[in-house]
Amino acid sequence: MGGNPPPPRVTLTVQRSVYNDDGSGGSVTLPPVSVNDDGTYTFTDTPTVAGRYGYLAMWSGDAAAGPARAVHQIMVE
After folding, report:
1. Amino acid 4: pLDDT
2. For the chain, percent helix, then strand, then coil, each to nearest 5?
3. CA 41: distance to chain centroid?
4. What is the spatial distance between Cα 7 and Cα 35, in angstroms, rounded to a whole number?
5. For residue 33, what pLDDT is reported?
6. pLDDT tens digits for 34-62?
């Protein structure tokens, strides 16, 4: 996320967006994700519909660091 990882144990918001060839799709917020002590985070999502999926992980920041966000995209066939 950005230049530096968020602090350990903060909570991230993850939003999943899907883009389908037929124009359908949408966005949902996944359950909150906690950052590990080493600055990494993981979550599991199992898409059931083919399409291009985008995941946006967001952290609102704190007194020491501003907000951060990271995007990852996958294709489900």
Report:
1. 65
2. 0, 45, 55
3. 10
4. 7
5. 95
6. 999 988 899 999 988 889 999 999 998 88
Q: Which amino acid is at 25?
A: G
Residue 8 has a pLDDT of 86
Q: Which amino acid is at 76?
A: V
Is 57 exposed, middle or buried (CB count within 10 Å of its CB: 0-12, 13-18, 19+)?
A: buried
Question: What sign for the dihedral angle of Cα 46, 21, 75, 5?
Answer: negative
Half-sphere exposure in the Cβ direction for 2 (13 Å, CA):
15
Residue partners of 45: CB distance under 8 A and separation at least 6: 16, 30, 53, 55
